[in-house]
Design a protein that fits this description.
single chain, 480 residues, alpha/beta, TIM Barrel, five-stranded parallel β-sheet, four-stranded parallel β-sheet, 15 helices, 20 strands, binds zinc ion
Amino acid sequence: MNHLLIATLLVCLSTTIRAATATPPPVPDVEIVLRETQPLTFPRGSRLPLYLWTPNFPTADDAELERVLKALEARGIALFARWGGNDFAKASAFPLRVARLQKKLGLETSVDATGLAHGFYNGTPATGHVDKDGKRFFDKSFFWSPGCPFAVQPRYDAMRARLEPWLEKYQDEQLRLDFWAADWEFDGPNEWNSGWASARQCVTCRAQIPNLDTDFAAFQTAVRKVRAEMQREVFVKPIQRRFPNARIGNYAMNPHDGRRYWWDFFEKRTDGLPAKAEHGALYRPWAREFEDCGYTVAMPVIYTWFNLHGEYPFANHQYRWFYNLLLEASSTGRHTTPAVPRVTFVHWTTTNPPKELPKDFEALTETSYEELLWHLLLRGHDTFAMWCPAPELAQEVRPVHRVYAAALEYKEFLDHGQPVLFDVPKQPGFVVSALQLGKKLLIRRTDFGPAPAFFELKLANGTTLRVPKVDGKCLLLTTP
Ligand SMILES: [Zn+2]
């Protein structure tokens, strides 16, 4: 072996070693999305896109950004540009580039303003509750530390001032603002956890709410009224002044049947607060708030919270998830007026799981998740906003895009049909959802246990349709 060959081998060997030991550069979010999804087969026309909450646009040059925007559009996918930060000039540079390119390409602009929306309760003593000795205090039982509902109004101007330069700039440049959304949840007065107990220790709250000690409903109404005012005065009205047609929505803000069927990560079960028990689940009375905020898009939350699996005794474990999530989905589907689009937050893989899962734990399968998404669409949900922790992006985007894309085959039904079924069977049997358009019905039936071969679907006009058992498909039936 001559020295030249040895030298060449050494070079090759060191290259191989470098390749094996160096960490490969992370794949950009968008490349994962493009890799895992395909361009639409059926055009979406003017239907809303599938929103992906989690992935970011690549901070690339304009040519590359334009390529990505076009590739996403071909798939019916929209991402959010992030608003936030304290240095407007610096923070806005990239979102503005995205918006300019979207305008040039004739694409809608969607923004996530979560980064600007938090900070009403910023620790300013004047925003705290007041105890009997005149001392200010905050409620530490939440992820954030809210103060007194009757002391937050002086913060409105400062909060609006964070949003204004963004709105002004978009308006001045005649950019689009089609969808303004945020995930604003815990930075407000709240009746759950220690919220009520804290207020009972506060002289201001006691003076404002008669019977505060005994009347939870009165406290809930008062708190939600303030929360709605905060969102209406600081978010919705300033946006509508400059962009009257923008769609505006916030996480977990949606019309409903008066109950909330799930618990968020910062909400703790607390003795002494009202809830209706069903098996191990607790459904809380929920105040009307969406309408008072003035939001124009409903954004309900359909997440596989870990606790749901253990709270129902159903032998069919898939139905433990399905049952609860369908209760929440049907509540919104039924109570939202047709003029309000429903852009539903969804998350498939178990949400907030503990380090160790119980022995009998069975996660929601991909097949069940896709069935659930179909039932959402057939119960009046328009599209989805997919949230997930970043490492789950590839597996999360596949099923939700598959259903979104396949459902466009039935675009006429999605655009103009009326949901006619909202039943949620109390035991695992079969679930049926349907959209009616004239004499035609688009139907989905999913079986979870013993069920008859045919389901007799009674229609408003008194006729009956027989719905057979079918797996993983929609049925198109015509009324007699
Ligand atoms: Zn108070």
